[in-house]
UniProtKB/TrEMBL annotation:
CDD domains xrefs: MFS_PcaK_like
GO cellular component labels: plasma membrane
UniProt superkingdom: Bacteria
InterPro entries: MFS, MFS_dom, MFS_trans_sf, Sugar_transporter_CS
Topological category with respect to the lipid bilayer: Multi-pass membrane protein
GO molecular function, one term: carboxylic acid transmembrane transporter activity
Domain Major facilitator superfamily (MFS) profile: 1-404
Subcellular localization(s) per the UniProt record: Membrane
Regions crossing the membrane: 28-47, 59-78, 84-104, 116-137, 143-164, 225-245, 257-280, 287-307, 313-338, 350-373, 379-401
Protein known as: MFS transporter
Amino acid sequence: MFVDGFDTQAIGYVAPAVAQEWKLARGSLGPVFSAGLLGLMIGALIFGPMADRIGRRRIILASTLVFGIGTLLTVFAPDAEWLMALRVLTGLGLGGAMPNAVALTSEFSPHRRRATLVMIMFAGFSIGAALGGLLAAALIPAFGWRAVFLVGGLVPLLLLPFLFRALPESIRFLAMVGGRDHEVVDLLKRIAPNTSFAGEVKFVVQEPKLSGLPVAHLFAEGRGWVTVLLWIVFFMSLLDLYLLSNWLPTVLNDLGVSVSTAAAIGAMLQVGGVVGTLTLGQFIDRFSFRALSLTYLVAAGAVAAIGLASHSIVLVTIAIFASGFCIVGGQIASNALTATFYPTAIRSTGVGWALGIGRIGSIVGPLVGGVMLARDMGAQPLFAAAAVPALVAAVAAFILARRN
């Protein structure tokens, strides 16, 4: 997830340098941002259900290969059109990896700490995104923006052999599909070397097998209203997150901050996200959607405060940190809660489609930001508008808390 976060957010950190090199208007980068998010959406919608058929491990490995190659090829992009195409390719891999990493972690975690452990795992995404900003601040002045994608492409490809050897398949998935009991035994012995079994053993999951399209089961057995509300939370949360993460460095640069400093300050969104992710887990496990609703309510105030504090570097940094704490932390908490809600047979589908629908919001967010910047909206109206999606997410999470 560390590399996933780095590669996902890299385009936002290099955007000012790309615009300067290719002499692009500020708003014209919106389609470039959204191209990668389109790939993320398609990857999540396709590879989530596919993993419920063939396994989480295979999809994670294939996805890592795809986004590593896509990021590496971005180094050679000659213009904005090629950059858009390569961001779609990279997004396909990233979109396939995310829901399956969530599902796999959830299925290896004890129920009472499942949200906490999923959030700790996903903190790697925020750490990678935050360090991406700090690394961009160091690399861009010395080597140019292409160096950021060189690092982002090489690292996952170099890690792939290790993942192939070390990454296990979900025990619950293996037991669900049947006929792979020897693999379950091997995994259990890796977890607890002193474990032994006498004779032939068969593992089962006390959940019904589901036939037909996995997506249809997201709305079966009373799950429909929860699915819709989860999709609203994901849509609004990711709209806000990607609007901020993609446009913050550019807005700060417009306010007179240097490109490298703007990237470093923008990285505070993800630094706050790391702290929020590591802090909120135990509260999410205990209070579920009630804690999530409060988190997004605070996020709305923090985002609006960015515009109000834009006259002060110190205050705007604090506001960005607080926004990341709540929005990134809230989004990762949403991932964890979604994984706990759906049964094994459709868990990757549930997480994947929630993320996929959320990616529509993440596509809309940068486009809306580009339109507002092209119209020379001030910082205060821009961030006041950006606070509204967080407020809607808070309301949807509150309804989930009341009804679930």
